[in-house]
Amino acid sequence: MATFVDRVTLHVRAGHGGHGCVSVRREKFKPLAGPDGGNGGDGGDIVLVADAQETTLLPYHRRPHRTSDNGGPGMGDNRSGFSGGDLILPVPIGTVVRDAEGVELADLAEPGMSIVIAPGGQGGLGNASLATTKRKAPGFALLGTLGWEGDILLELKTVADVALVGFPSAGKSSLIAAISAAKPKIADYPFTTLHPNLGVVESGESRFTVADVPGLIEGASEGKGLGLEFLRHVERCSALLHVLDCATLEPGRDPLSDLDVILGELAQYPVPKGQMPLLERPQLVALNKVDVPEGRDLADMVRPELEARGYRVFEISAVSREGLRQLTFALAELVERDRAARIAESATRERIVIRPRAVDAVDFTVTAEGTHEGTIYRVRGAKPERWVQQTDFTNDEAVGYLADRLAKLGVERELFAKGAVAGATVVIGGRDGMVFDWEPTLTSAAELMTAPRGTDARLDALNRPTTSQRRQSYKERMDAKTEARAELEREREAGIYSGEDE
């Protein structure tokens, strides 16, 4: 059974917004006292929070599907629906959040950092909120929008000050158990740690964390063994400590060759942009197992060669604790130096400027797309797509309200500019967007209509006569009546018709 997980795909669905309510207040002697439909409640968000008490992503490996609460629908008497509760998901410090395409969304490297990975849906407005001086009693309400749904990738990168690297069975787990309170698995037979171990070390007035990374072998960068699977846990470290086994019984191995192999594998690991490569960070060498006579002799032999390469070397024993005090003080010195450099860097770091949205920013785009069925015009934008979700297409008045909103936004003007004609296919949204057979603007005077609630006379028949046509018809009728009177007058003068009843 897995006990440590550092990569998880989380399937999330935020709560949907509640629908607005259509209601008309009725009182004694006031059968229609005005609209009183309440608004729908907002859906709950899904939030990730960096928590120092969490050490693994195992809970999300076992339960990868997470859902927040939906918002409640609005009710009459101006009662709004309840808002869905947010779902707070604690994750270990050092969790990197990415979307399904691998784009980094956030790096939760500090306690308390949070990010909303799935915003909840927006509650719909009730007809009381939609009422205006011109539309006094709307017969429709807006629907709640859907909450965000999709996949989120979580990757844990342990936040440690010092990384212990070395071959399997070099004594890294024994060392971290000796210098901290960590209790990793240790045995008297060769094996490799299967997940990173963290330990907190106190040396003088300094306190720092040490990460025991599973052993590397030659060819790890090509996928052999555990490969570079766990090196992400040392990306944030201040220093590297090479733990070399001076008492190995494997043929062809010695501390110098082990170090060369580890350095070659570390050089193959690509660190994220902006971070210092692993081999350019401060490095110390610990010659372990000097409590064994053969190990001490080998350590005395290789130490001059390592110091000639520029390394600071310590002869230690995780069993007898020899040399551990000097080693921890040296590591604390490197960690404190790195912390001071980071503080100085943060003081001169460029400030982040958040600029407000421009007043003339484009709210939507219209693109013409060629398909086997002809040209379609696709409208994309947060506002048009949200408005379509909020529209009840079984209610003609709601459809008319949507047409008014799109016209005021300038969608129809842009459709004309792109060459759309009456009857053209218009899609608002992406692949699953709403498809319309576009008719140019009927009128944007929905507020002036006196049609029954829930109806829109503009949608009855699109071939109704225009004002000029009605004026022309009226003139023709008046001309016909004038001609008929003139004909009767001529008949009277000719004696054909006297105008008196027989």
Automatic annotation (TrEMBL):
Q: Which cofactor does it need?
A: Mg(2+)
Compositionally biased region (Basic and acidic residues): 473-494
In residue numbers, the region (Disordered) covers 62-81, 461-502
Extract the InterPro entries matched here.
Answer: G_OBG (IPR031167), GTP-bd (IPR006073), GTP-bd_Obg/CgtA (IPR014100), GTP-bd_prot_GTP1/OBG_C_sf (IPR036346), GTP1-OBG_CS (IPR006074), GTP1_OBG_dom (IPR006169), GTP1_OBG_dom_sf (IPR036726), OBG_GTPase (IPR045086)
PROSITE patterns named in the record: G_OBG, GTP1_OBG, OBG, OCT
Molecular function GO labels: GTP binding; GTPase activity; magnesium ion binding
Looking at the record, the residues that make up the OBG-type G domain are 160-336
Give the protein family.
Belongs to the TRAFAC class OBG-HflX-like GTPase superfamily. OBG GTPase family.
Instruction: Quote the protein name from its UniProt record.
Output: GTPase Obg
User: What domain of life does the native source organism fall in?
Assistant: Bacteria
What are the Obg domain coordinates in residue numbering? 2-159
**Main subcellular location of this protein, as a coarse class:** cytoplasm
* All copies of domain OCT, residue ranges: 356-440
Localization, per the record, is: Cytoplasm
> SUPFAM superfamilies, from UniProt?
Obg GTP-binding protein C-terminal domain, Obg GTP-binding protein N-terminal domain, P-loop containing nucleoside triphosphate hydrolases
Enzyme Commission number: 3.6.5.-
Q: How does it assemble?
A: Monomer.
What processes in GO biological process is this protein linked to?
A: ribosome biogenesis
- A Pfam short name: MMR_HSR1
Keyword annotations: Cytoplasm, GTP-binding, Hydrolase, Magnesium, Metal-binding, Nucleotide-binding
Which parts of the sequence bind Mg(2+)? Answer: S173, T193
The first-level EC class reads: hydrolase
Q: Which PANTHER family does the entry link to?
A: DEVELOPMENTALLY REGULATED GTP-BINDING PROTEIN-RELATED, MITOCHONDRIAL RIBOSOME-ASSOCIATED GTPASE 2
Q: Its GO CC terms?
A: cytoplasm
Per UniProt, where does GTP bind?
166-173, 191-195, 212-215, 288-291, 317-319
Question: What is the purpose of this protein?
Answer: An essential GTPase which binds GTP, GDP and possibly (p)ppGpp with moderate affinity, with high nucleotide exchange rates and a fairly low GTP hydrolysis rate. Plays a role in control of the cell cycle, stress response, ribosome biogenesis and in those bacteria that undergo differentiation, in morphogenesis control.
